Amino acid sequence: MAHTRPNPPDNIAQYILDGLDRQGPETLRQIAEHAEDLADWKAAQAAAEMDKEDVVREDSQEDNDRPVDVPAKASVVIKEINNNRYYYYQWRAGDQVKSKYKSPVEAGE
Question: Which of 59, 72, 92, 105 has the fewest Cβ atoms nearer than 10 Å?
Fold first, then answer.
């Protein structure tokens, strides 16, 4: 029975597809298992990162300054970077956590 070659998703870079094409069946199975493990680990890291943030507001629907590319469901969080505090919009997009800079936290806030 002849199998047809599967079509890759459009969002996989060509250099990755080229590398996969050079692998044998067993190596491809190992790559698939590693990719699943890596995806689980990255999702857990993203969830842990969200848990560490100080959520200032649960959503940014009432935020008139919210950029158009930030969804209304985004939370406003405070991130500390190099002993400085900043507001960021943060939201989930599928299994990823996305962030976009908003502004510095003013002294006393």
Answer: 72
The pTM assigned to this predicted structure is 0.48
| pLDDT tens digit sequence for 59-95 | 555 667 788 888 888 888 888 888 888 888 888 888 7
The partner residues of 84 in beta bridges, in order of sequence, read 81
Question: How many CB atoms neighbour CB 42 within 10 A?
Answer: 13
CA dihedral sign of residues 50, 56, 61, 63? negative
DSSP state of 69: T
- Given a contact cutoff of 8 angstroms between Cβ atoms, the answer to whether 104 and 84 are in contact is yes
At 58, the pLDDT band (50, 70, 90 cuts) reads low
Quick one: which H or E segment has residue 26? helix 25-52
Please enumerate, as own/partner, the contacts of 54-57 that have beta carbons within 8 Å and a separation of 24 or more: 54/78, 56/87
